[in-house]
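[agent] plan:
  1. take the single chain provided in the ticket
  2. run structure prediction with default settings
  3. attach structure tokens to the ticket
  4. add a short note for the reviewer (M.T.)
[agent] executing step 1
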Amino acid sequence: MKLKMSEKSLFAILLRSPWWFSIGIAALLMLLSRVFLPEAFRVLGMLSGLPFCVLGIIAAWRQRNTPSPERVAQALSNLADMSWKQFLPTIEQAFVRQGFNVSRLNSGPADLSLEKSGKITLVSCKRWKAATLGVEVLRDLKALQTSQDAAYAACISLSLPTGAALEFAKANAVQLICQDELASFFLKGI
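[agent] step 2 finished; step 3 output follows
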């Protein structure tokens, strides 16, 4: 049986929050325990902040290479200003830097075929500047993935997917690389 933490639990929320939130809660718990608990229970009360210290350390480790919101906004702006002829080589280079062998596909719903460790990933990025990412693009990509027996499928877009597209992607294991994730990917590729 695999245990999974609820996305709405306090610990899950703190893991997604800036690391100093958890450290601040730990410090506050230790201070309150020191001030308000009787002498016999102070040490035990101060130890109640330990899980929050651990969460803060885990969050800091996860966030160590995360770009600032300003860098993300600048990267998204730079991507939006690119033409298709500039964008495609940039994305290819980013994938090559991550160790993929990249091949361009000239037709169909996928634009790139990535190979790494014997597994093929099909990537669609032609509609990267579309106002919204609809489910049709993802359906076509999934059909191509199935027909070519590719291991994975991914779709790149500057815009957020529609609700139906998001549900389809989750149900069919199509990875969406949108907005902040795309900016982070772009910044790592520079």
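[agent] step 4 note for reviewer: The chain has a mean pLDDT of 88.
[agent] ticket updated
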